[in-house]
Amino acid sequence: MASRKENSVLLLSLLLIISLFTSYSAGIAIYWGQFTAEDTLANTCATGNYQFVNIAFLSQFGNGLQTPVLNLAGHCDPRTNVWVQFYNNPMAQCQYGGNTNDLLNSWNKWITIQAKQVFLGLPAAPDKQAAPNGGFIPADVLNSQVLPTIKTSAKYGGVMLWNRYFDIQNGYSNSIKSSV
């Protein structure tokens, strides 16, 4: 198992590489690192499907005594991009449930916050493990009814998918990347 110092060096290296290739165009983001069956990070990046790979590591946690800390080493302002989960929360009336009205109304509220880019967070599969409480949008509906509307926002950053494992199983990013 890698040491905390090695993990910090790896994270710092990834942030440096990402900062060299910063782009303000829309893209697909994916969560990686939650399941062992989601392939390697290198293979995830090599697909060419994702502009962003979210690797959510905490630098300090555990023992019930420490407050979790995300150490970004001063390299970015977390308010720059906002990744909104538009699924798994039917009570919030922000997700797709057969029509796009609630989702688009919620999107219009989110783009008023102080952020450079807002990402539409969706499950990558209709599987109940991906989103037990709903919110999956079939690719044809996303491509024809949702993306044409939200892409008109200057704050549109792209689509964030939960997660790489479900994307492997469903091929969702391949179905949407030309429209993102």
UniProtKB/TrEMBL annotation:
Entries under PROSITE patterns matching the protein: GH18_2 (PS51910)
Signal peptide segment: 1-27
Assigned keywords, A-Z: Carbohydrate metabolism, Chitin degradation, Glycosidase, Hydrolase, Polysaccharide degradation, Signal
KW Hydrolase (keyword) present: yes
Domain GH18, residue spans: 1-180
Protein's UniProt keywords contain Ligase: no
Gene3D superfamilies: Glycosidases
GO terms for biological process, alphabetical: chitin catabolic process; polysaccharide catabolic process
Name of the protein in its database record: chitinase
The species this protein was found in: Quillaja saponaria
Upper classification of the organism: Eukaryota, Viridiplantae, Streptophyta, Embryophyta, Tracheophyta
